[in-house]
Amino acid sequence: MIDADTSDMPKQIAVLGTPIEIGASQRGTLMGPAALRTAGLVTLLGGLGFEVRDHGDLRIDAVTELDDAVPENTKHYREIQRWIRTLSAQAYQLARTGVIPIFLGGDHSLSMGSVNGIARHCREQNRELFVLWLDAHTDYNTPATTITGNMHGMSAAFLCGEPGLDGLLGQEPRASIDPDQLECFGARSIDRLEMDLLRERRISVADMRQIDEFGVGVLIRRVIDKVKARGGVLHVSFDVDFLDPGLAPGVGTTVPGGATYREAHLIMELLHDSGLVRSVDIVELNPFLDERGRTARTAVELIGSLFGQQITDRPTPTNAIGR
Fold first, then answer.
1. What is the CA radius of gyration of the chain?
2. Of 241, 244, 281, 301, which is the active-site residue?
3. HSE of 90 in the Cβ direction (CA atoms, 13 Å)?
4. Which residue of the set 21, 128, 139, 194 is catalytic?
5. Do 137 and 187 contact (CB within 8 A), yes or no?
6. Is this model's pTM higher than 0.85 or not?
7. How far apart are CA 323 and CA 135, in angstroms?
8. Domain residue spans in the chain?
9. CA quadruple 281, 146, 186, 231: dihedral positive or negative?
């Protein structure tokens, strides 16, 4: 068991919605931030002893002049570019205040802005930022490898400095992480050319086969030990399609065989105990595809575990039998 090491974890949390949906082919993730709030995220975090400030939803300037060339195979590039530039600057400013930012999505293209801003701050602090990519996909495509042109599938590659989206940030500083600072966890759907690039870069990928063989406890401890050994901090980018579709149906890219309820909670509990988490994305929640808010509630419960809620603290459902 990992001893909890949360003594220097900030006790202030900043929540920022990023209702972007055009990075994916399935519309509806723009409703994700509202669904997470409705499911009680802010209230839950406050009940865990955090001072929580909800900054509302990010707005973009639609008239900003953008003059770089639009790369081929990048759907909705201009609009995503505005989102990413704005979000990166906002993430950087939030990180500088010493809070833990939680970015509510929105599709996974938002991570190109959120993580870049956090990485920029960490670079100024001379501290390595590691990114835990909890996702059914590795999102390591580039404009040269993508099959669909959907930019949510290019976000991790962009963060690691892969070419093809070099003008995306414009004057906003690009703070790429090294490939060995990316930890993909739970993958079970990877394109062929994407896989070639992952192997070439030696990206750490703990796929569901490895999770079945070794268990989430062993594998997530390896990530934690690596980050601690290098004196780093951790950004958790949580795509709800990391979970099995039977548990979380409210996503546009369901892939069978995902993490179970207890596997996901154990990951979050161990991450909390590590004291390493300094920022979080919650992405790809699509309430339009959900079943009575079930996916949103599950995501909120998991974030509760990430920030210290114990399994024994959870209330018994009102429809439980025999209590």
1. 18
2. 241
3. 25
4. 139
5. yes
6. yes
7. 36
8. 12-311
9. negative
Instruction: Measure the CA–CA gap between 198 and 141, rounded to whole angstroms.
Output: 9
Catalytic residue among 172, 194, 281, 284: 284
135 catalytically annotated: yes
Is there a catalytic annotation at residue 139? yes
Q: What is the per-residue pLDDT across 243-277, written as a single tens digit (0 to 9) for each? A: 999 999 999 999 999 999 999 999 999 999 999 99
In angstroms, the CA 234 to CA 276 distance is 5
Range list of β-strands (E), the chain: 12-18, 51-57, 100-105, 129-134, 182-187, 204-207, 233-239, 277-283
DSSP 70: P
One of 21, 128, 135, 263 is an active-site residue; which one? 135
- Tell me how far the alpha carbon of residue 41 is from its chain's centroid: 16
Pairing label, strands 51-57, 129-134 = unpaired
**Identified catalytic residue from 21, 108, 121, 301:** 108
137 assigned to active site: yes
User: What are the tens digits of pLDDT across the range 265-321?
Assistant: 999 999 999 999 999 999 999 999 999 999 999 999 999 999 999 876 666 655 544
121, 137, 265, 272: the active-site residue = 137
Does the annotation count 313 as an active-site position?
Answer: no
Q: Tell which CATH architecture fits domain 12-311.
A: 3-Layer(aba) Sandwich (3.40)
Q: Is 57 exposed, middle or buried (0-12, 13-18, 19+ CB in 10 A)?
A: middle
